[in-house]
Amino acid sequence: MSDHDITLSVNGTTIARRVPARRTLLDFLRSDLGLTGTHAGCEHGVCGACTVLVDGLAVRSCLMFAVQADAAKVSTIEGVANEDGTLHPVQQAMHDNHGLQCGFCTPGIVMTLKSMTEAGKSASRDEMAAALSGHICRCTGYQGILKAVDLLSGRGE
Amino acid sequence: MKPPPFDYFAPETLEEALSLLAEYGDEAQPLAGGQSLVPMLALRMSRPAVLIDLRHLNELRGIAMDGTGLRLGAMTTQAEALASQQVAQALPGLCDALHLVGHFQTRNRGTIGGSISLGEPAAENPAFALALEADLELCSVRGTRIINATQFYTGPYSTARADDELLTAIRYCPANWARIGIEEIAQRQGDFALSGLVANLEIDGHRIAKASLAWLGMGSTPLRAPSAEAALCGADIATLDLEEVAELALGDTDPLEDSHASIAYRCQAGRTILTRLLGRLLAERSPVA
Ligand code: FES
Ligand code: FES
Questions:
Q1: Is B178-283 CATH 3.30.390.50?
Q2: Which of A79, A105, A125 is at the close of a domain?
Q3: Which of A153, B168, B254, B289 is most buried, most CB within 10 Å of its CB?
């Protein structure tokens, strides 16, 4: 099995590591970097808990090898809130609308919604709701998350 | 749920990729977006010794329109195709199909070419290529050949692609007046279809001049429905009995029973989808010339 040197940016910090080819980006973030906010659910692309942003796009980190993130910019849930601890608008909307209970699915959902509401993006309420089909939540019944989506798309109060 | 060990290459050029494929043959697996292959590795359904990642091959990306049709580089992601004005204008039916492929997050990495070369029987891209009789461009160190999608799917997850070949581009040349659509039934949005159908109809006045139908999820490969197509060809739209066409089209399938659906369920779903889809396409008004 081949090993590879990679250099990438994770939440704005440049990181250089050597990884075995089969290490997923998910395991790299959690085990090599200790960034355990990205959750490992199914590890085969079904649940969405592992969603991170790679070069601004929401992707499943269990369906990508760390070696494929060489030279990429990766953002994880750890980099979402402001430095002073105030929440990102997506986090605040999830909080205010009871969009989470146990929180297992939450980091992935926040990353998907963050990618769709970033400056210059204008995803509609329906597009965001459709993107949520890529996430499984066993607790909330989704209604609180959809309320957060209403708020983020300018439809909620 | 961890992939078995493999050696990894990320060639910088197409030539380099093709010579790696020539060297490793059936031990190697090309890696496109990985949205099907990586789960197959995680579930140990596939154990290639070598992965050849195509991510640096910019020559395999991009969408171009020319006099004869729409050419999609095999590494074009599903999200890129969905965002393309050219695709929306030249082949809106492809957008309808791509909206059904996986989820927002998997479409950001999943590619058109990866999906077509895997040939998952319940996936949208292979059935779409089959219904539209897309030309597929295969490259190897031996040269380039074009094969039609109708010749490509040879068995369950097996295709006419030789081990040293790479799918580099897909070319769609729909007739200007074609009416193209897709319908499917899945348990949840983004899941594989329990039953689905792509239809490509050419209408001439009050008759159907040409019809091609491709099923997804109704056999061990994407499947055309030749008996139904023959019945549709030349048929008068006003007197067409879609239930009869559905029975013929189901006769061309070989659905499998699994934990998700029985054969009877798949057939009933297929009947519903076919009448719904053809009813919708036949009711569309022809663009005024
Ligand atoms: S852990 Fe990646 S999709 Fe479930
Ligand atoms: S909050 Fe528990 S899984 Fe979503």
A1: yes
A2: A79
A3: B168
